[in-house]
Amino acid sequence: EVQLVESGGGLVKPGGSLRLSCAASGFSFSTYSMNWVRQAPGKGLEWVSSISPSSNYIYYADSVKGRFTISRDNTKNSLFLQMNSLRAEDTAVYYCARCVREACVAAGSGVAVWGQGTTVTVSS
Amino acid sequence: DIQLTQSPSFLSASVGDRVTITCRASQDISSYLAWYQQKPGKAPNLLIYVASTLQSGVPSRFSGSGSGTEFTLTISSLQPEDFATYYCHQLNSYPQSFGGGTKVEIK
Description:
The structure holds two protein chains of two kinds. By secondary structure, chain A is mainly beta. In chain A, about 0% of the residues lie in helices and about 50% in strands. Chain A has no helices and eleven strands. In chain A, a hairpin with a 5-residue loop joins strand 4 (about 35-40) and strand 5. Chain A is globular and about 40 Å long. The N and C termini of chain B lie far apart (about 35 Å). Helices cover about 0% and strands about 50% of the residues of chain B. Chain B is built from no helices and eleven strands. In chain B, the strands form two sheets. In chain B, strands 2, 4, 5, 6, 9, 10 and 11 form a seven-stranded mixed sheet that branches. Chain B has strands spanning about 5, 10-15, 20-25, 35-40, 45-50, 55, 60-65, 70-75, 85-90, 95-100, 100-105. Chain B is mainly beta. The interface between A and B is medium-sized, with 26 and 29 residues.
């Protein structure tokens, strides 16, 4: 079974840091681009970041650029999101996500696999 | 950056109704558009990708059309389990972006 399981969420003070992890199973993780998507309470979906299979290409939303770092460990089938300088507006459920095809953008794809989400709350 | 505008943002409909949701892109995104359904407390579920390709396991009452800047998601006969929020998503270029969502509620 194809599965993504996030962990690492929690309550953190403004300016603090948190590292999210996503454990992948049931597919060839090293051949797929991976993504983080978040959803603030009562709000819509927001794309956060993407990383190519070999980590050669990395993209960020402007709202997190310079504060968040996406990475992956293909030997451990794991995706990560290091979040620094956290703000109240970063409060959200964070989803790990994989597209239908190995590439997401300009590849005739869509996000077919989602984790259950991990909740990040930034509050003093 | 590409903005996606969904309309309506809220829709009240009855079981058996035909429902159409529109997504407009601020620039040409070819056919690189996907549609999702999301229920409260759950992750989104992919319905349609490449504008009109039905994801495996999704009922055939869901269909998508369009290209360029205008796209539609149609539910041919609304079922009780279809009451949810729907999002469009452009995968033409980075940064990826989502529409604001359309909440479909029971009339």
